[in-house]
Write a structure and sequence with these properties.
The structure holds two protein chains of two kinds. The longest helix of chain A has 12 residues. Chain A is built from six helices and 14 strands. Chain A has an eight-stranded mixed β-sheet with strand order 2-1-3-4-14-13-12-9. In chain A, strands 6-5-7-11 form a four-stranded mixed β-sheet. Chain B has ten helices and nine strands. In chain B, strands 1, 2, 3, 4, 5, 6, 7, 8 and 9 form a nine-stranded mixed β-sheet that branches. The N and C termini of chain B lie far apart (50 Å). Classes of the chains: A alpha/beta, B alpha/beta. At the A-B interface, α1, β8, β10 and α6 of A face α2 and α3 of B.
Chain lengths: 203, 244
């Protein structure tokens, strides 16, 4: 795993340090970059994201990455907003996204006992083929992960684990070499570290 | 050597303090804390820039979210803290002095990054907000009614509210469930109870009576009066959903 050369796509947002530190704790080096050659030659690519979907897509387009990312063949992990960027669209500012994974992110509605953003620890449950997905190895059903988001994807054919916040939404999605988590594995304790380890074991 | 003994001494002491912070943070992670809050008492009251490199070292070891509070007066200061690896910034007195700061922080970083701390005390006329509570000599009433301020900070973009009930703070007689329940009705973002925890039943009470999203405590953990793992097992038995 130490041979992994991880490219973290620089979406311009603050708060990338926690992800880099999480990889360091796994003894994996990473490079924060928008350079197309670096991203193409990386063994693993992570698309993080904090901020708004439309802004993030504009930055990807400016760097020419909206064409590069869909053609990547190595394992790609979207995290939080990164999951939503892999979708067809997000209701947030009606952003058109990368279109690699099916679906549109839609907003949670704030009701009693359900503040928005959905922020905190929540359990995930395997769906569809989730029981055979290597990304979830060593992670028990019902494990808690740390979420911070206002938009989410409905459960669909790409969902391998779901969580519930008012409605069931996609916690982990997967399609070919593209996978994504709505939660933050870098802030999700031992289970989060296990998921990152599993991702880095994909090739 | 050029800078003499005082500087060296200060640096040494800082290292020692940071070492304590790291050891303590790791202990709380191991015990099962869900989130940590760091009150940066090195934050300068006169606005001088301060070295916040310790945040980077905390971020290196923590695999749970943490926020930093204290002396954050500008978007630039908040950005520095977030870039060092903090997940959220928590603002209290500066938001009272300049409420627009909340809007600016939310616009720049998203509401999920912006925690507003409110120090509230019961007066004859109801609950009132206090400011400069870090310094007993400067502490004063902020001229705002608590529930109104709770509504305003949410409209401006607060993504979370920590309500520190000053009547209860430090006395370890239990959280102020009555005040928290009142604020809960006006609060559509996560609400964290602070002030008054002294025993495990206080945590169960505040979750069950005031339906808060989290309970913050310091001295009972620092002084090892309550162990976090024991507390969470206890809470689960009492019907509170917790991560074990």
């Amino acid at each position: 795993m130490s041979a992994a050369r991880v490219a973290i796509i620089d979406g311009g947002g603050a708060n990338i340090a926690s992800l880099r530190f999480a990889l360091e704790r796994l003894a994996v080096e990473s490079e924060l970059t928008v350079d197309i050659a670096t991203i193409r030659s990386a063994s693993h690519v992570i698309l993080p994201g904090v901020g708004a979907a439309a802004d993030a897509m504009n930055r990807l387009r400016k760097a020419g990455l909206d064409r590069v990312i869909p053609e990547l063949t190595q394992p790609v992990l979207g995290i939080c907003l990164g999951l939503q960027l892999l979708l067809e669209a997000s209701d947030e500012d009606d952003a058109e996204c990368l279109g690699i994974l099916r679906g549109t992110a839609r907003r949670f509605e704030a009701v009693a006992d359900q503040p928005v953003p959905h922020m905190g620890w929540n359990r995930i449950t395997r769906t569809n083929g989730g029981s055979v997905v290597g990304l979830l190895n060593d992670i028990p059903d019902g494990a808690y992960f740390y979420f911070v988001h206002s938009y989410a994807l409905d459960v669909n054919a790409t969902t391998v684990a779901s969580a519930t916040y008012g409605w069931d939404f996609s916690a982990v999605v997967m399609h070919n070499n593209f996978m994504a988590t709505q939660f933050h594995p870098e802030r999700s304790g031992a289970h989060g570290a296990a998921l990152l380890t599993n991702f880095l074991s994909c090739y | 050597m050029r800078d003499g003994q005082v500087v060296k001494g200060v640096q040494f002491r800082n290292h020692e303090i940071v070492g304590d912070i790291l050891a303590l943070a790791q202990r709380y992670v191991d015990e099962g804390a869900d989130e940590l809050v760091f009150y940066d008492i090195t934050a300068s009251p006169d606005g001088r820039s301060v070295d916040r490199g310790w945040i980077n070292r905390v971020a290196e070891i923590l695999n749970i979210p943490f926020s930093v509070a204290g002396g954050i007066r500008s978007v630039a200061e908040a950005e520095e803290i977030l870039n060092y690896g903090a997940d959220k910034i928590s603002v209290n007195t500066p938001a009272l002095a300049n409420p627009d700061l909340i809007d600016e922080l939310a616009r720049r970083f998203g509401t999920q990054c912006v925690v507003i701390g409110i120090d509230s005390r019961q007066e004859s006329g109801g609950y009132r907000v206090y400011q400069y509570t870090g310094d007993p000599d400067k502490t004063r009433e902020a001229g705002r009614e608590t529930v109104q301020w709770v509504r305003e900070v949410q409209e401006r973009g607060a993504g979370e509210i920590v309500l520190n009930c000053m009547n209860q703070d430090g006395v370890r007689q239990g959280y102020d469930a009555e005040q928290l329940r009142l604020v809960r009705q006006a609060c559509n973002v996560p609400l964290i109870a602070s002030g008054g925890a002294g025993a495990m039943e206080h945590f169960a009470d505040v979750f069950n009576l005031a339906r808060v999203d989290g309970a913050l405590a310091a001295s009972v953990f620092h002084k090892a009066i309550i162990e976090i793992g024991d507390l969470k097992a206890y809470l689960r038995e009492r019907g509170v959903e917790v991560r074990l």
